[in-house]
Amino acid sequence: KMRFDSWAVRLSYNPTKELSLQVSHGFVKSPEPLHPEEDVKRTTASIIHAKRFGKDILLNSAIVWGYNRVNKDHQEHSFLAESALSWKKNAIYGKYEFVEKSTEELALDEHTFGHDGKFPVSAITLGVNRKIFSIGKTDFSIGSQATLYMPEKPLEGLYGSNPWAYQVFIRVNPGLMR
User: Fold this and answer.
1) Torsion of CA 120, 146, 21, 16, to 10 degrees
2) Which of 45, 64, 131, 176 has the fewest CB atoms within 10 Å, i.e. the most exposed one?
């Protein structure tokens, strides 16, 4: 049975055609099935910027902050800053991510890391892709990206001091439908 037991409000403002600002706050009733007794108060804010240079060059950037509060002892922040520069069939991008995760979310031993432990995790990603062909309005690209993770000292024994990941990918990007 559907219940309307959660709510959210958002304020958006576009001071220019290139810039968008937003802030939101909401109450989410029991979002996690494993913890049905926990409700979350969620707050977000973002700045999004898109700038075209000539016909073929586009720079997109975003800064996003999020905050979840379950109770006075369980509060988690997250932050993202990313940018992508596209020209003709090419794109290069980078992003920085920061998130706080609990002992449970990281599947850590509570006896070793504490029941209420909270661990900041950061990552930096750099990537590149190139459109190789299109079918109708759908673009196909190939690309590669690398991510360097920066775990806190207590997690280095599990993950190392600077673990990293590397991917090669094919991206299918459907065009806008009108």
Assistant:
1) 160
2) 176
What SS3 class is residue 154? helix
Q: How far apart are CA 71 and CA 127, in angstroms?
A: 38
Q: How far apart are CA 58 and CA 96, in angstroms?
A: 20
CA distance 139 to 90: 12
Residues 87-118 have pLDDT tens digits of 999 999 999 999 998 888 888 888 888 777 78
Task: Compute the distance between CA of residue 121 and CA of residue 144 in angstroms, rounded to an integer.
Answer: 23
Separation between Cα atoms, residue 133 and residue 171, nearest integer Å = 11
Position 158 confidence tier, pLDDT thresholds 50, 70, 90: confident
Contact predicate 46/22, CB 8 Å? yes
Please state, in angstroms and rounded to a whole number, the distance separating the CA atoms of residues 150 and 9: 34
Burial class (CB in 10 A: 0-12, 13-18, 19+), 155: buried
